[in-house]
From TrEMBL:
It catalyses: a peptidoglycan chain = a peptidoglycan chain with N-acetyl-1,6-anhydromuramyl-[peptide] at the reducing end + a peptidoglycan chain with N-acetylglucosamine at the non-reducing end. It comes from Endozoicomonas montiporae. The lineage of its organism: Bacteria, Pseudomonadati, Pseudomonadota, Gammaproteobacteria, Oceanospirillales. GO terms for molecular function: lytic endotransglycosylase activity. Functions as a peptidoglycan terminase that cleaves nascent peptidoglycan strands endolytically to terminate their elongation. The keyword Transmembrane applies. GO terms for biological process: cell wall organization; peptidoglycan biosynthetic process. NCBIfam families: endolytic transglycosylase MltG (TIGR00247). Pfam families: YceG. This is Endolytic murein transglycosylase. GO terms for cellular component: plasma membrane. InterPro entries: MLTG-like. PANTHER family: ENDOLYTIC MUREIN TRANSGLYCOSYLASE (PTHR30518).
Amino acid sequence: MVKKLLLGLFSGFFSLMLLAGLAWMGLNWYADQPLREDSDEVLEFTIRPGDSLTRVANRLFDAGWLEYPQVMRLLARIDDVAGGIHAGDYLIPATINKYELLQMFVSGDVRYYDVVLVEGSTVAEALQALNEHEKLSQPLDAAAFQTLLADLDIDGNPEGQFYPDTYFFESGDTVESVLRRANDRMTIVLAEEWDARSDDLPYKTPYEALIMASLIEKETGAEWERPEISGVFVRRLDKRMRLQTDPTVIYGMGDRYQGRITRRMLREDTPYNTYTRHGLPPTPIALAGREAINAALNPKEGTTLYFVARGDGTHHFSETLAEHNRAVRKYQIVERREDYRSTLEAQ
């Protein structure tokens, strides 16, 4: 009797173990299957802050990308990661399996977006680009921007204090977070370039070099011209000559500038007009990149003191005023291009 009982218990236990083994094999087989057979689709999917795994699995089921949402929950419980999924935007390939999908959510392998702060743009234009990006949150109004500047210890005009670059971020990151990164990046780049500067420069501080870099950034998009333009400006400063660069006049006019500069504008005195005032303007006039900063701190040696736009995005450099006036007449009047432009033609 006891023998039969033990045999029955053993048989029942064995059956249960067999069933459990088969269930485990089935679970692993299912979890190892792609989300969608014979498909190269990619699902754009968002896990919102506060979403539970149950809610996420059910939404994937509703979208037709998960046959058995309860199995996803079971896999998460087995790995003890049910509460460890990360919010964000995801790109989910149909070819990955359920294990890989769960790992994607747990590791936070989210989709990144980018925003570009353009070299030569103003801080106002950069802030507008950030505020208008649909994937960035908490746009900054004027008051909030001033609060941020105070926290960054930026007094007065913040022009030039943010590094122009491509910044990557997750959906929901704030405008402020990108600006903080851009300010940190500018601090680092300016310090690196300042430490590697040439001797006998007319700048007392890195900030003055940044002002010069912004003038160079606005004057040319031709990378090879930047050191030579820097050389012209440095020599003019050394000789106590006015810089006489149009972008400073335009910046000083603000919203009044409508695309065309006149002689009257050149004579109108503002703190930024380098036709009426000696030395550098009081602040940068644009966001300057590393190449422009490097050029400001490593000007090309030479004797040129003037330059004029050729109309193809490059400039003619002259040593004397007489030569410069001839070049102005040639490129701006006599041989002025029908397709005159101030920037290089896109390649």
